[in-house]
Amino acid sequence: MPHPNDPSLRSFIDVAPTSDFPIQNLPYGVFSSKDGLAPRVGVAIGDYVLDLWELEQDSRLDVGPLGVFSQPSLNAFMALGPKVWSATRARISELLRSDHPELRDNRELRARALVPMADVKLHMPFAVSGYTDFYSSKEHATNVGVMFRGKDNALQPNWLHMPIGYNGRASTVVVSGTKVRRPRGQLKPPTAEVPSFGSCKRLDFELEMGVVVGQASPMGAMLTEKQAEEMIFGFVILNDWSARDIQQWEYVPLGPFQAKAFATSISPWVVTREALEPFRMQGPAQQPEPLAYLKQTQPNNYDMQLDVALRAGAMNEAKTICSTNFKYMYWSSVQQLVHHASSGCAMNVGDLLGSGTISGPEKHQRGSLLEISWNGTEPVELASGVTRSFLEDGDSLVMRGWCQGDGYRVGFGEVEGTIVAAE
Fold it and tell me: How much is the pTM?
């Protein structure tokens, strides 16, 4: 049987070359539709969602315990492990192939199992057990360091020796399309003698990828590179909304807290690690050489194009303000997971790891407004008479990402969020 990543595969469902969801992708999500059934697990294919619960009931898909795909999250499926993930993806690929008649020629099953994307509501794809955000783009860390500490002290001494991160809030991770309320918090501008409490004035986004952990590790254990890789179920696009003025006052000495706790948005489709395998590549050279537990024996970065578009309330169309690539990340997702567990921290099914802001070496590749506007000193022009240094109420932000194959692309769809007033 052909491998699901075979670029020559075609589905009996017509899929445009620019679609994010060809047969080589098959990302997982959770959806509901007009049939009145509760949210359940599906796979995106072209402009349709393949209802895996329908296939499971019809005995076309067997992953073991019945009802795994009738649940409103991917957690139970992820817990079954990498061998089941791979076998299930191969079976779904077989059912969707243009040369395989089983689903193609079964009109009744096709009508039940294939739901037009336009008729579904997408939900959180998995229940987030814990959320950790990293700070792993050298370009982003350098830009921020130059802004606040000067060129000669841009990177902190520990940055080149380990992935820097902090524990965020799983409770406020939301799916694309969820409106984001402007946060409130303690503010203390440099000119103020004492802090005050009020609405954030310097609201920002951070373009990131999110790692979805599909396997648990026991408390007290360390992970090898191979173990960490096999624990990764897939990836989502992630927007780490950030209140820069709240963060400025609170981050010393323990780092971000309320400035990041109010919302984190993710895309509704989880693209599997296996689907991204053809786009794996070597990351930047790491100097000094990492300690032994962080050394990599294989390429763990991905050639993945990422775009951010911003539409101000008065605009009809969004304007692209960032185009970058996931390949620039200094610390890979595997290294982040290895380091996360290195103290003996137990990892759980459904853990989410944010990559940290993804910036590249060029100005148009900066992954946050803090960098794009250089801390508000260089406002970005969106349209005639419309500029932004930070996000305003009514602004809508859309992030997209994809890996380009030969005649197809493996994409994530989008993650969108619109800012609403604090009160």
Answer: 0.97
